[in-house]
Amino acid sequence: MELKKAIIDRHSIRGFTAEPVSKEIVEDILKTAGHAVSAKNTQPWQFAVITGDVLKKIGEENEAALKAGVEFDYPDTSFEGVYRTRQVDVAKKLFSAMEIGREDKEKRDWWLARGFRFFDAPVAIILYMDADMDSEVSRFDMRAVTQLITVAAMEHGLGTCVEYQAVMYQKSLRKHLGIGEDKKFVVGIALGHPDSSFPANAVVTGREEVSTLAQFYGF
What we know:
The chain is of the alpha+beta class and 219 residues long. Helices cover 44% and strands 13% of the residues.
């Protein structure tokens, strides 16, 4: 796949088929993504790749915690101004595609819970790093490798959804993965074959024009 096209075509996939993804394919994706930029070549990223019964169990426990109103271990993010506008815009597009009405609490709750189940993807990748590396510099590096994972997955015909919901409840992750407090969870990625019949997968978010974002000097 041509690089520029892959970057432009990449978008979040929230509905997956049950078709499994092999360990070899995930290894190839992570090997490619491992060429991401990092400060002083520190490569702070570590990956927990989950599938099968382990993934199902973590998803079920996350959903149960959500329904019980358990406080998040990882703070949710709120935005204001134009950033809030962009957030609301994509939510409206998704709800419209999924035919979720504004007052339909049951279906809205169902939609929210899917994120905590990794959107029912066959594979989830949890990105984490040493807790003492938790700085803005290292987090930038983690974001860089995350982006490359989403693009590298496309070469295999796979879709992804980067989601903080995957790490907002961490008790279950630490229990099932054996990852201690000396590690810091950063983000999760749902991974699998896109379900072409899932309406939300057709939603593509807009992007701002370069002219509204960039200032050029000396040209």
